[in-house]
Amino acid sequence: MKPSSQQVIQENRDYTLFSWSVQKSAHPIHMAKAQGVWFWDGEGHKWLDFSSQLININVGHQHPKVLEAIKKQVDELCFAGPSFATEPRGALGKKLAEVTGLAKSFFTLGGAEANENAMKIARLYTGRDKIITRYRSYHGATMGAMTASGDPRRWPVEPGIPGIVRVFDPYCYRCPFGKTRETCGRECVSHIEEVIQLEGPHTIAAIMVEGITGSNGLLVPPEDYYPKLRALCDKYGILLITDEVMSGFGRTGKWLSTQHYGIKPDIVTCAKGLTSGYMPLGAVIVSQPIAEFFEEHMLWGGLTYSGHPVSCAAAVANLQVYEEERLFENTLEQGRYLGERLEAMKRKYACVGDVRYIGLFSVIELVRDKASKEPLAPFNGTSPEMQKLAAFLRSRYLYAFSRFNMLWVCPPLVITREELQYGLDIIEEGLALVDKALGVAPAAAD
Q1: Nearest-angstrom CA–CA distance, 336 and 342
Q2: Which residues of the chain does CATH 3.90.1150.10 include?
Q3: pLDDT tens, 111-123?
Q4: What does DSSP say about strands 130-134 and 164-167: parallel, antiparallel, or unpaired?
């Protein structure tokens, strides 16, 4: 006899630890089954997964082609050590070289491990120690990746690893340099050059940035940001590492978010959409010069499960689904509609200060006042209004990620127009409640 939903939740609470939680405050949903953009809880309620779980279920839940590839690989070969060659490992490496324009991949089990190894590879290749990262960033929860993050989740583990230097972000809505789009001189890049000079260019191995900043506000850089950053790295012989863990593999409508900007990084890290979460897998993808360097020099890195055949087989099938089902095209098509709806919300609701979006990667930034831009919740905190909004969405069985004063809309790339509209309509109901709580009536609809 299967346990009740409450029994499942209680056993999870009693015997397991939940991440990023004060344990007594954890209130998990019992997820019993899932399909496409939907999942069902243990009591039979149907939820719309509007955040693709952790922005990783890109091809949707339970895709039959990925499931079949996993089952087939399990039957043939479940495990091979990292020193062995396997068919799915080679096939995946070849495909990643093809779609990224880079050369070779080192496989990990997730994004944090990928970023740890990217920093290690950069240091080995350049012989330099420092890594420049950004303040509004998250690169993972292992010690090195967490130190590289600017996210406040790093505070409890500081001082962390040595050699991390942080710079400001391309946050146009709240420009740290006090500029507007009309007065901007791209200080978000030029100040990095001053930091490089003050730190000593000969000491800096790499600049590591998220392709599109994810859980720290979804910051979409201006069109010339990446070309200028690429030129800056080239000027000083510094490697450019782009963390595409969240923004890669179709989330923005391309394989890599930086492909929108016409530049090629030296190293790309990825995970999440690489397998759409069906199996644990991450990768560090390096350029040809870096790959050639390790033909003659030791790669001081290794993991028991590096190149795991089942994970690689899942990734190969997952990448095929992107192409065969034209999911990038769907991402761009539905993303245009999403952008139109978000812009309309910005005009209509007093609590919506800014909206940022690219493909099916988007955020709504909530404020108490449009003129002052006072956040609806403080940095690294929450507020009664944000809690009320989150509770309302949950009451309507809409699963969406919210943090600080922001609400993310990042559904699976298989979503239809009708499903997207359904979720956005619920969000609008929630925004109307926030406006009411602030004592402001919504503007007339467009």
Answers
A1: 10
A2: 5-59+326-437
A3: 999 999 999 999 9
A4: parallel
Write the pLDDT tens digit of every residue in 132-160.
999 999 999 999 999 999 999 999 999 99
- Whether the predicted pLDDT of 444 surpasses 70: no
Contact 302, 78 (CB under 8 A): no
Is the confidence at residue 341, as pLDDT, over 80? yes
| Domain 5-59+326-437 listed as CATH 3.30.420.10 | no
Q: What is the CATH number assigned to the segment(s) 64-324?
A: 3.40.640.10
Roughly what angle, to the nearest 10 degrees, separates helices 111-126 and 288-296? 70
- pLDDT value at 445 more than 70: no
Q: 């000027």: which residue's tokens?
A: 235
Q: Which residues pair with residue 208 across a beta bridge? A: 241
Domain with CATH 3.40.640.10 in the chain: 64-324
Residue range 371-382: mean pLDDT, rounded: 96
Q: Can you say whether residue 315 is alpha, beta or left, with left for phi > 0 and alpha for psi between -120 and 50 degrees?
A: alpha
Contact 70, 311 (CB under 8 A): no
Question: Pairing relation of β-strands 204-210 and 239-243?
Answer: parallel
> Residue type for 245, please?
V
Distant-in-sequence, close-in-space partners of 145: CB < 8 Å, separation ≥ 6: 111, 112, 113, 115, 116, 139
